[in-house]
Amino acid sequence: MRIKSVLLCLTSVAAFASSFATATPILVNGNFESTTNGGNKQLSSHVTNRSDRTTLTGWTSSNGNDGGYNFVLNGAIANTWDSAIWLRDNGNGYSASPGGGNVFASDALYWPGVLSQTVNGLTIGKAYTLTFNYAMAQQTGFKGTNKDNFWEVGFGSATRNTDLLSLEDGGFSGWKTATMSFTATSVSEVLSFLAKGTAPGAPPFMLLDDVALAADVPEPATWTMLLGGLGLLAFLARRRMGSAT
């Protein structure tokens, strides 16, 4: 009976431990550096030969008809004439994203498109933490106050919203970091971002970068319980071996 009990405990602990040793979810191109036709262009819903359109590797940008009024911009020049969308920088504190390089940009009011990616390698019932950087800027040549803009984030059937961003005429919100938790209901889930807002005036561009997804790690107390269980099993096994000699 003792051997049976020990084996049963070993099986339970092994199953418990394996629940944390799950495959890393595959999120492709979370920094938006990989494109099919170069950067600093408006996005298309599909790979195209048009010189003024591009797509983001691993992602789909679509408003149901085309890619929407979405862009991949070079954050280092987005505040200059050379950018596909020239963002205002009149001493408003504009800066490239913390990760540098390309950023995804979407007008929340003018034909915004959903940016989405199917994430594979998930474990059903497991929690995952999503992090990303986001900001809001105004396009040069336009005026007005922008209020109550945010990213609506989808993960499977669940949705979360970022904190609201607001800025005065010509302003820049500064970069914020969002952290959200989602639980997988399938081994594959669609991760999506949609810019939303209520500002009726100037074009507000919501910016996005540095998207990352990771499986939640167990709390220290959980690891302590697991290690304690393993120690107990080792003790019982040693005691069994000693009594058998």
Account of the protein in words:
The chain has 245 residues and is of the alpha+beta class. It has two domains: 1-20 and 218-245; 27-216, Galactose-binding domain-like (Jelly Rolls). Helix content is 17%, strand content 33%. The chain is built from two helices and 13 strands. A seven-stranded mixed β-sheet has the order 2-1-4-5-13-7-11, with no helix packed on it. Strands 3, 6, 8, 9, 10 and 12 form a six-stranded antiparallel β-sheet that branches.
Key structural traits:
single chain, 245 residues, alpha+beta, Jelly Rolls, 2 domains, seven-stranded mixed beta sheet, six-stranded antiparallel beta sheet, 2 helices, 17% helix
Q: Can you list the strand order of the major beta sheet?
A: 2-1-4-5-13-7-11
Number of domains: 2
Rounded Rg: 24 Å
Uncertain segments are: 1-23, 221-227
What's the tally of helices? 2
Major beta sheet, specifics?
Answer: 7 strands, mixed
Q: What assembly state would you assign to the polypeptide chains in this entry? A: single chain
How would you describe the shape?
globular
CATH homologous superfamily placement of the largest domain: Galactose-binding domain-like
The CATH topology annotation of the largest domain reads as Jelly Rolls
Question: How are the secondary structure elements laid out?
Answer:
Blueprint: H1 2-18, E1 41-43, E2 53-54, E3 60-62, E4 70-74, E5 102-107, E6 114-119, E7 127-138, E8 146-155, E9 158-161, E10 165-167, E11 176-183, E12 189-196, E13 204-215, H2 220-244
Parallel strand pairs: 1-2
Antiparallel strand pairs: 1-4, 3-6, 4-5, 5-13, 6-12, 7-11, 7-13, 8-9, 8-10, 8-12
Helix pairs in contact: 1-2
